[in-house]
Amino acid sequence: MAAPHPPRTTDWWRDAVIYQVYPRSFADGDGDGTGDLAGVRSRLPYLAELGVDAVWFTPWYVSPLVDGGYDVADYRTVDPAFGTLEEAETLIKEAAAAGIRVIVDIVPNHVSDQHAWFKAALAAGPGSPERELFHFRPGRGRGGELPPNTWPSQFSGPTWTRVPDGEWYLHLFTPEQPDLNWAHPAVRREHEDVLRFWFERGVAGVRIDSAALLAKDPALADFTEGVDPHPYIDQDELHDIYRSWRTVADEYGGVFVGEVWLPDAERFARYLRPDELHTAFNFAFLSCPWEPDRLRASIDATLAEHAPVGAPATWVLCNHDVTRTVTRYGRADTAFDFATKTYGTPTDLALGTRRARAAALLTLALPGSVYVYQGEELGLPEADIPPGRIQDPMHFRSGGTDPGRDGCRVPLPWTADAPWSGFGPAAEPWLPQPADWPDYAVDRQRADPDSALSLYRAALRLRRTEPGFGDGPMRWLDAPDGVLSFARPAGLVAVSNLSTTPVPLPPYEELLLTSGPLTDEGLLPPDTSAWLRGPEQSLA
Questions:
Q1: Looking at 145, 251, 275, 450, which residue is catalytic?
Q2: Cα 421 from chain centre
Q3: Helix, strand, coil shares of the chain as percentages rounded to 5?
Q4: What is the C-alpha separation between 305 and 313, in angstroms, rounded?
């Protein structure tokens, strides 16, 4: 295994590169077709060689897997499909020995319908203390046959399900994911105990799923989009919850990253005050099209909204919910929006690959921390999943119009000539791999100095060893139309050409890295990025 990474700052999370692992699809250690902790442990040398600072795991807890593990039945037990609690503890220790911190995923808005609390609530009946942990209500209409309100779902479909005794329960996602009542003190105590459980096992941080949805308007009144105040997104009561959580994290030196989708920059920044969350995902940047003016505006807005609270920005191009970067950037519309996902959208993979490589260097040069979703470093495209193999509930709840998220969750290719591209030793993977998956395999890319993997490894090595990267100031530089150019400390300059013609590079002393070759004349081609070292410049 590679030597442990030396720490760069005491506040490691301010400029870390964090690799997202979707356990079902990373590596299969026991040969049953599902990725697991044994598979991750066997690939820790790969992650150490890649040069990441931390690994964020999507949920590995006991779950019926209706929503890819985001329907948790027991936070204190690892799902047998992934391994055991003892294996998780060993993985955390082995990762730490390699200089890699572990971040786990907590899903506080809801639990699985197989959770002991919810099963007890169904058995106890209306008016019981057990039901107070959730949002059970009588229906409307003469016989209670109508749901209690008209709230929209985070997925397609209804947000209320009726149980045999006539009451309804709230679920912002699927019926198998009943929402918890965060006004109940037992709900708060339980989650603080869960945080302590995992911090005591050595995790460095916690990613908070759907972090802005926990608190609900107690009146559960009807809601009309654009007319009424939102009844379950960004309620003020959330901040007291996260201040309490921060106290727990501070006991262990742990950190939080929140999944906070909010268009209002000022309200977004409230979650990042010094006594709340350490960081939050930057979805505006993730969703932004490959357009210079839009990207620059997104970067400026991100830095501006973080500055008042002293929090570092986070940058991410893709995750387990989002169309892969290579595919998205090869389309006519390079933005991302759940509402516009549809079958058969054409893409130019060669163009998308050039842009994804350029975007990687752009992102890794920005101030703050960066998240890399598994397979992005291999340049994987979105896979087309045959309808009969789709598992994502977003597809089914849309009536089949939404292709779902499985296309970015296909098991990784490790060895080109091995069965299932080396994902596992025996059974077919839980999602089918495309026929060209061997072309993207790790072993082939390791041997190719021009591969996506080689680019990422070189970029992360420079980001770790060269001054100027990570948290800190930046200043935009004058550049031709369609070009983003900015200075960082120690003379570092990053240039990304989003125009349609080659452009000259600014004066430099050393060319550190490019996402693609320069022209014969030394110009930066379209959809290409470069890192340069030159004289140190004022960043004021």
A1: 251
A2: 25
A3: 30, 15, 55
A4: 9
Find, among 331, 343, 322, the residue nearest to 409 by Cα: 322
Q: At what angle do helices 185-199 and 238-252 cross, to 10 degrees?
A: 30
Per the rule left: phi > 0, alpha: psi between -120 and 50, beta: everything else, 379 is left
pLDDT for 113 equals 98
251 an active-site residue? yes
C-alpha angle with apex 461: 455 to 465, nearest 5 degrees?
150
Report residue 148 CA to chain centroid gap.
Answer: 33
Q: Report residue 462 as tokens.
A: 């420079």
**Phi/psi class of residue 457: alpha, beta or left (left: φ > 0; alpha: ψ in -120 to 50)?**
alpha
pLDDT-derived band at 435, boundaries 50, 70, 90: very high
How far apart, in Å, are the Cα atoms of 67 and each of 58, 155, 361?
Answer: 11, 11, 32
Question: How many Å apart are CA 23 and CA 34, to the nearest integer?
Answer: 8
What is the DSSP code (8-state) at residue 337? -
Q: What is the bridge-based pairing of β-strands 528-533 and 54-57?
A: unpaired
**How many Å apart are CA 332 and CA 300, to the nearest integer?**
25
CB atoms near residue 4 (< 10 Å): 12
What is the per-residue pLDDT across 283-311, written as a single tens digit (0 to 9) for each? 889 999 999 999 999 999 999 999 999 99
- The residues, any chain, with a CB within 8 Å of residue 249's CB and separated by 6 or more, are 195, 199, 206, 255, 256, 278
Residue with tokens 């509402």: 339
Cα–Cα distances in Å, from 96 out to 89, 256, 372? 11, 18, 19
* Relative orientation angle of helices 349-365 and 452-465, to the nearest 10 degrees: 10
Q: What ranges make up the beta strands (E) of 445-509?
A: 475-476, 483-487, 492-497
Task: Single out the catalytic residue among 30, 67, 179, 209.
Answer: 209
Annotation says 348 is catalytic: no
**Under DSSP, is residue 46 helix (H, G, I), strand (E, B) or coil?**
helix
pLDDT above 70 for 217: yes
The sign of the dihedral angle between the CA atoms of 267, 273, 279, 285 is positive
Contact 453, 353 (CB under 8 A): no
Q: What is the pLDDT of residues 56-82, one digit of tens each?
A: 999 999 999 998 899 999 999 999 999
Q: Is the dihedral of CA 70, 197, 79, 123 positive or negative?
A: negative
Instruction: Answer whether 369's CB lies under 8 Å from 13's CB.
Output: yes
Mean pLDDT score of the chain: 94
Confidence of residue 344 (pLDDT cuts 50, 70, 90): confident
Alpha helix (H) ranges present in 200-291? 238-252, 265-270, 283-287
* Position 471, amino acid: D
Q: Which two tokens stand for residue 74?
A: 């027991």
Band (129; pLDDT cuts 50, 70, 90): very high
- In a 13 Å sphere around the CA of 154, the CA atoms on its Cβ side amount to 22
